[in-house]
Amino acid sequence: MQIAKSFSAIDIADLWKKYKKNNDLVARNSLIENYLSLVNVVVGHIAYNLPAHIERDDLISSGFFGLMDAIARFDISLGVKFETYAKNRIRGTVLDYLRSKDWLSVSLRKKIKTYESAYTKLEVQLQRTPTKEELAEFLSMSLKELYNLEANMSTASMTSLEDYISVEYVSDQGNDSIDKKLNRDFVKQKLKEAIEKLPPKEQLIISLYYSEELTLKEIGLTLNLSEARISQLHKRAVLRLRGYLARSKSDFLNN
């Protein structure tokens, strides 16, 4: 088994200079080797919540191309931490791959979109989190049908939230227009406010999942709760965050 080379911080800085200044492909390949573990970290975080028929190797392959793209696009003069930038790029390519495979059935995807739209509309209309009964009535379904739909939503919600958080929390590197920056700053502030309004346990789950990058199983072990319960709380937190942002957008447009 071949052991990956270990590069010092000075080595890494030198490799970046060689690659960016001279397009040194040997230096680029060494950078890829050094940061390859980022692909495993991101894929491991996403793959844990996906159906068994999704091949991990396929996710690794798409993530590898994301890493190569990140290295090619990274601007060392901006002083941004590469690992943060690369994880966002890798996550984006993996999610693009999942969307291209369309592993959700058409009917389930339609039901999920209808559910999320209903939840957001009720949040705006009621100015609070809707009850199960209100959701069921709005969707013209029984409580049993609503519970069954929510049970089937867990995996899909994970992927859509990964996509959502990566867009709202982490911008692409580069020069944005002032309008884009102001809009992004507004969303970040509102998202921060939304997270602070979550119940303490849901705040902790969001933090552990997105900041600490723990899996649902690891969070369950940390909080002494079942993985299924963590998934349920995570999904509820996601919907609350979206609902709060929808209300904020509505208030902003109406003022």
Automatic annotation (TrEMBL):
Belongs to the sigma-70 factor family. Pfam families: Sigma70_r2, Sigma70_r3, Sigma70_r4. It comes from Pectinatus cerevisiiphilus. This is RNA polymerase sigma factor. The keyword Nucleotide-binding does not apply. CDD domains: Sigma70_r4. Sigma factors are initiation factors that promote the attachment of RNA polymerase to specific initiation sites and are then released. Residues 58-71, 215-241 form the RNA polymerase sigma-70 domain. PROSITE patterns: SIGMA70_1, SIGMA70_2. One of its GO terms (molecular function) is DNA-directed RNA polymerase activity. GO terms for biological process: DNA-templated transcription initiation.
